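Weekly structure sync, notes
Attendees: PL (lead), two postdocs, one rotation student
Agenda item 3: pending single-chain targets
PL asked that the sequence for the first pending target be pasted directly into the notes so everyone works from the same version. It is reproduced below exactly as submitted, 256 residues in total.
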Amino acid sequence: MQYDDQLAPLKEQALNDGEVYPVLRRAIVELYLQPGTVLSIKDICQHFEMGRSPVRDALIRLDQEGLVTLLPQRGTMISQIDLSRVEQERFLRLSVEEEVMKLFMACHTPSDITLLHEVLRQQQELCGQKNFDTRRFLWLDDEFHQVFYTVADKLFCLQAIQNVGGHYRRMRLLTCNASTSVEEILRQHSALITALQVRDTELMCNIFHSHLRKLDREERLLLKKYPYLFKSSSNYEFVSPMWKADYLQTLKTKRV
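Predicted structure, written out during the meeting:
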């Protein structure tokens, strides 16, 4: 799939609003753009059919979030994945979401459990398809966990976590590109639902910690297989013109 095919509605919205930031951020955190890629402001302006001022404003915001690195006289590099940042973003989510799930445990209804089952069913159905859509699977994963925040009335917390979780999200996409990881996620989601149904808080917390900490094992494999995607690597590539292909799609034949 091409970048323009996937993000055309967002690009159109960017043109209508005169704001590049939302679509450019999504292109980065959903791995349409390869970490380590260097782009020129000129290419970005041409791609979005915008002047330098809105593009520069977007890049400043993304630089503040650690999603791009401004290279004097070189252009703008899509930041390589920072494992230290991944750990901190994951720690934030782990700390908040554990408390959210305890609140959910105390007040959930049968209809809430039914909703979790339905999202899990959609994930399982997606995994059975020939052309596995990694981004949709992760979107459903987010929807599964959003049920907890919605029932606990903590959606503001969820939005705050998502706003600062760009490095962690890219790691999640890479791990979801592995079939073995996806199968483990499905098993853990099913086990979480069981723990919630029997209202076993200790079991729920144990499963949840294992669920979020599975990255500890997967990080080592990904770092070995794709060293150029991570901050420890000094390799980066200048790409012009911009976005000839969807980077995540190029990994489809390289599942971990």
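Discussion points:
- The chain has 13 helices and four strands.
- Confidence is low (pLDDT under 50) at residues 1-5.
Action: rotation student to compare against the earlier draft before next sync.
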